[in-house]
Structures are given as C-alpha cells and as structure tokens.
C-alpha cells in the first residue's frame, strides 16, 4: 500500500475502534438473509425486522415452511419487500436443493442464488467465512472515490481498484471502516469535512481548496 493509503487506514481504524458489521445475525444463513434485506434499506430497519423474523424462524427448516406471502408479512416495512420476499422464498429452496441446506462459501455459488449480487456475497464471505473481501455499497463507493482510494464510475470498478490499492489482509476491515465513515461523517449531502480525520488525505477536499484559492 502507498503511504497515503496506510495513513487513511490507520486514521480510520483509530477513529472507529468499535467497527463491525451492523447487521444482527448468529449464523451464515441469518447474515445472508439480513444482507439481502438490506438493499435500499438501513441496517437499523433490517435489524428491527429480523429480530422477530429470526426468533420465529431461526433456521432453514423453519424458513422453508413459509409461503412467499408469509415472508412478506415479516418484511413488509422494508423497501422492495415484495421482490425481496420472492427472492428469499426461492433462495431458501435453492439452498436446500443445491447446497444441502448450507450457505455456500464461494463468490460463484453465492451469486447464483436469487437476490444475491457481488455486494451481498462479499458481505457473507467476509463476515461469515473470514474470506478477504470488499463489499462496495453506496457508502464505500462514495467515500473511496471522494478521498481518492478509487477513481471509478461504478461499484464493480471501485471494488477492483480497492483490491489493488489495499492489502488483502485489511480488505474486510477497510470495508467496515469506509461504511462507518460514510454514515458518521462523509455523508452524501453536507459531509462534515471540518471534523474529518482524513481531510488532509482527501482528494475532493484538496480540489475544493484549490478552487477557492484560484
């Protein structure tokens, strides 16, 4: 890693010592379900839903007994609940039929499941199986491109550039650090640059400063 990237990593790690996945789960299956539900929805909203959902249906055997309509009753307060309930209904059956009831642990297998894209697969690989991975959500995309860890126009290219910029040993942790920073400081609107611990390393901040002095 470059000296600048190392500084960003160290400063964020010091700023957020309690960094972690903010979705509540106890098993790889619960993490997979929660991550599918988290699309276009906050982790806090998902946790409110899964508190009851996972209590009533803690494992695949229980989840397989639900109809799509019954899944909807649990997740109705979330965005895109109809599509998510359909995906989960099919996902549970594919886990049982194709994977012996176990959550697979490879990118190829995970992304073959309904409703599971690279971001969801990376979250599961990283948090459930300890596989180095960088899940690029809206926060990771925004922050990494603002500060200059990536210079990309889409999440796929951002993921590739982050993998090149960062040591694999910190991929998973850096993913969480960028999310925490995006939620707590580097927001989409009105980022709090005046209290940002990595403002000195931020490319966008540098550009804006240069424009003011021109």
Commentary on this structure:
- The chain has 214 residues and is mainly alpha-helical.
- The chain folds into two domains: 3-18 and 135-213, Endonuclease Iii, domain 2, CATH 1.10.1670.10; 28-129, Hypothetical protein, domain 2 (Endonuclease III, domain 1, Orthogonal Bundle).
- 61% of the residues lie in helices and 0% in strands.
- The chain has helices spanning 3-15, 28-37, 43-56, 60-64, 68-75, 81-98, 107-110, 118-129, 138-147, 155-165, 171-184, 203-213.
- Helix 5 packs across helix 6 (81-98), helix 9 packs across helix 10 and helix 9 crosses helix 11.
- The mean pLDDT is 95.
Note the run of SSEs as H and E: HHHHHHHHHHHH
Largest sheet: none
Tally of strands: 0
Structural domains: how many: 2
Which radius of gyration do the C-alpha atoms yield? 19 Å
| Low-pLDDT ranges | none
The CATH superfamily of the largest domain is Hypothetical protein, domain 2
Beta-strand portion reads under 5%
CATH top level class name of the largest domain: Mainly Alpha
CATH topology of the largest domain: Endonuclease III, domain 1
Question: What percentage of residues falls in helices of 4 or more residues?
Answer: 55-70%
Q: Mind sketching the topology for me?
A:
Elements: H1 3-15, H2 28-37, H3 43-56, H4 60-64, H5 68-75, H6 81-98, H7 107-110, H8 118-129, H9 138-147, H10 155-165, H11 171-184, H12 203-213
Helix pairs in contact: 2-8, 5-6, 9-10, 9-11
């Amino acid at each position: 890693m470059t000296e600048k990237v190392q500084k960003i990593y160290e400063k964020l790690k010091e700023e957020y010592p309690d960094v972690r996945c903010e979705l509540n789960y106890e098993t790889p299956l619960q993490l997979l379900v929660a991550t599918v539900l988290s699309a276009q929805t906050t982790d806090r909203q998902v946790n409110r839903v899964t508190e009851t959902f996972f209590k009533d249906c803690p494992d695949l055997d229980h989840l397989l007994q639900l109809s799509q309509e019954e899944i909807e009753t649990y997740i109705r307060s979330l965005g895109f609940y109809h599509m998510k309930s359909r995906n989960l209904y099919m996902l549970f059956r594919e886990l049982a039929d194709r994977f012996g009831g176990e959550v697979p642990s490879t990118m190829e297998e995970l992304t073959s499941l309904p409703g599971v894209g690279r971001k969801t697969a990376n979250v599961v690989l990283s948090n459930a199986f300890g596989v180095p991975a960088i899940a690029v959500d809206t926060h990771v995309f925004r922050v990494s491109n603002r500060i200059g860890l990536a210079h990309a126009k889409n999440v796929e290219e951002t993921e590739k550039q982050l993998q090149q910029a960062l040591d694999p040993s910190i991929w998973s942790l850096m993913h969480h650090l960028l999310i925490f920073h995006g939620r707590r400081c580097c927001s989409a609107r009105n980022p709090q640059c005046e209290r940002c611990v990595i403002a000195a390393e931020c490319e966008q901040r540098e550009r804006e400063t240069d424009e003011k002095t021109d």
